[in-house]
Amino acid sequence: MSVWRDRARRLIAELTRDLPDTATLAERRKALWGKGHAAHGGTKWGRKMWGSEVRKYLARHGATPKTPLPLYQFPDHVHFPFRESGQ
Question: Taking the complete model, does pTM exceed 0.85, yes or no?
Answer without folding.
Answer: no
